[in-house]
Amino acid sequence: MDQALSGVLGERSHKALTKAFGYQTLGDLLGHYPRRYATRGELTPIAEIPLGDHATLVAEVVSVGQRSMRAKRGSVLEVVITDGTGLVTLTFFNQAWRHKDLTPGTRGIFAGKVGVYRGTRQLAHPDYELFSEVEPGEEAYEEWAKRPIPLYPATQAVASWQIAKAMAVALDMVGDIPESIPEDIRTLEGLLGHREALEKIHRPAEHRDAVAARTTLRFHEAFVLQCALVTRRYEQRLVRSVPRKPGELTNAFLKSLPFVLTPDQLSVVDQIHTDLVAPHPMTRLVQGEVGSGKTVVAATAMVTVSQSGGQTALLAPTEVLANQHFRSLVATLGPDMAARMNPVLLTGSLPAKEKKKALLAAASGSSLLVVGTHALLADAVAFADLGLVVIDEQHRFGVDQRETLRQKGQHPHLLVLTATPIPRTVAMTVFGDLDVSSIATMPQGRIPISTHVVALADTPSWFARVWQRVAEEVAKGRQVFVVAPAISPTVVEEDAQVEGDAEEPLAAKRPLTTVEETLPMVQAIPEMAGARIRALHGRMGSEEKDEVMLSFGAGDIDVLVATTVIEVGIDVPNASLMVILDAERFGVSQLHQLRGRVGRGTQPGTCLLVTHAEADTTARERVEAVASTLDGFELAAKDLELRSEGDVLGVRQSGSRSRLKLLRVTRDSELIDTTRRYAEILVEADPQLVTHSVLRGDIERRFVDGSREYLEKT
């Protein structure tokens, strides 16, 4: 399986596959599984293939004709094929000799880009492979007609049947393949052997062969992944760290809180304390909705660590959020505890004198809580006794950045906070070596937010009504957020998860709505005369951003026209309306988090998702999904379904290129559960996989290109 493709295939085939897919070894090629299967009697619906798509068709030649070209010398061979639902013309220039093979009644597989010429669909110079003749006899013909034809993910340069031919050569080269999955598990689950599964997925004699093969290979993929994660978790348990026990300070802090923790918060606090007293580092992910109370849970852990003189470093993705966390933690800790812990803020924009003071407080241990941005990662930053690292919104940081901070202590405990709910199977797959806690219930008194889609593609006149609603809220003495995805026509907010719409032609894409154009438009609305309206975005200086945020929080600003810098951290109980412009250009999770900024007081919150997306597009579906539910976990699953898993074993966070070949975390939850249980039993009995050398080798083979390092550092 590790044999180089260059020694198996011809030079031309090897170079084509390497260029198209990056494949280098026999194992790489054999892991390129068929997208689907056709049969020789199958009729693929030509009528449904969009123009411009690269299509692979199973069809029959209807007629063959030849004509001279008008503008220059030569001829055009036109071959009409059908699949029973429509007609496509194959066009060949100066290749009249092809009519000997392409005779009426001939069937085959045809591949090319679907275009249109004079109102007729056509494939210009398509690749094709005709079905070969078979021996006479009804039984032989029936068997031949029923044999599935693998159709592979292909490119314009490498057609599906060219991949199939290379696959046949590769399969013939492979002998027995040692098994990664123990025999007792294969027997219990009714799985094929690895070699047999590869043979049947690429060269099935009948459809059920392919089904059995996919079942086996999907299980294999899930099992190897879960074994890697469970092995890593076991290795973490071997690392020694300083236990941090809760005591009088922890109890005093919890008693000082002016509210009662929810059952979920209490449960997560207990889980964290159990982790902190263990002899190995805590690695826990705490997920919860915006406003669910993650801050007080994290503050409890910080107080507990400080009981033994340990310091906490909280890493936030932006200066805005670092400032918000700092103020929020100081308020949550209360005057006495804050005085004891002496929190300091460390960001890149701090004046040199203040930065020097913060660095000294961290290095000497006089500050037990250091809140900061990427500035915390600098070589000049040192800690006396770093006991806890808290990461806010882990997906905003690179793996190396997180690891750099952890290296500033002796195996400090790790607490990751996210307001983006993660489906359980994703947590088991992407964060499978972290313990996951969820705060699913909201604190008492939170009023549900009503969300409405303002579809301008359907009713453009609704845009005026949006601004009427803004004026109405301001007239009632309430405050309003207006969010735009860009700062100016050339500058997108660095933290905005701006989405494109693949279904929208490039020429038709609308420019992003900006803060710079929205601010004067809102100020010019007659009903808004006298309203206090300000802008907020990432290009403003830290002092100016803080001044605007504090003013908005104090009620001195009526309407805040902002980018996504307000996504997390601003708590304004009087804010009752959120208007999100170009809502289709944001991801589901970001829309959900933005929405969570309103309805935090006694007034009900309303969110208006203003979109230009057409009905029945993925972009519109994203927006409507957010409006349909307030359940962040349900939305997270929907978001994953719409965005695809992405490269869940590497550093890419989303997109369609996943290193998972057959396993899908949105679909295969039961399989992930099953393989997780098997992996835990196996690793508990043999932590080093000494008696499972093939599995150990498979794990190492799969975790190439930094994926192993990714798992070790997260």
Short account of what is shown:
By secondary structure, this protein is an alpha/beta fold.
Describe the protein.
The structure is a single chain. With 714 residues, this protein is α/β, with parallel strands linked by helices. The protein is globular, with a radius of gyration of 30 Å. The C terminus is likely disordered. The longest helix has 32 residues. The chain folds into three domains: 172 residues, Beta Barrel (OB fold (Dihydrolipoamide Acetyltransferase, E2P)), CATH 2.40.50.140; 192 residues, Rossmann fold (3-Layer(aba) Sandwich); 180 residues, 3-Layer(aba) Sandwich (Rossmann fold), CATH 3.40.50. The two termini are 29 Å apart. A seven-stranded parallel beta sheet has the order 11-12-10-13-14-9-15, with helices on both faces.
What brief labels describe this structure?
OB fold (Dihydrolipoamide Acetyltransferase, E2P); seven-stranded parallel β-sheet; 3 domains; globular; Rossmann fold; disordered C terminus; six-stranded parallel β-sheet; 714 residues; 38% helix; alpha/beta; 23 strands
Topology of helices and strands:
Blueprint: H1 11-21, H2 26-30, E1 36-38, E2 54-68, E3 75-82, E4 87-93, E5 107-117, E6 120-124, E7 127-130, H3 138-146, E8 149-151, H4 160-173, H5 183-189, H6 194-202, H7 207-238, H8 248-256, H9 263-276, E9 283-288, H10 294-306, E10 311-315, H11 319-341, E11 344-346, H12 352-364, E12 369-372, E13 386-392, H13 399-406, E14 413-418, H14 424-430, E15 435-439, E16 450-455, H15 462-475, E17 479-483, E18 486-488, E19 491-492, H16 515-523, E20 533-536, H17 542-553, E21 559-562, E22 575-580, H18 588-595, E23 606-611, H19 618-628, H20 632-643, H21 669-685, H22 693-702, H23 707-713
Parallel strand pairs: 4-6, 9-14, 9-15, 10-12, 10-13, 11-12, 13-14, 16-23, 17-21, 17-22, 20-21, 22-23
Antiparallel strand pairs: 1-8, 2-3, 2-5, 3-4, 5-6, 5-7, 18-19
Helix pairs in contact: 6-7, 7-21, 7-22, 8-10, 9-10, 10-11, 14-21, 18-19, 19-20
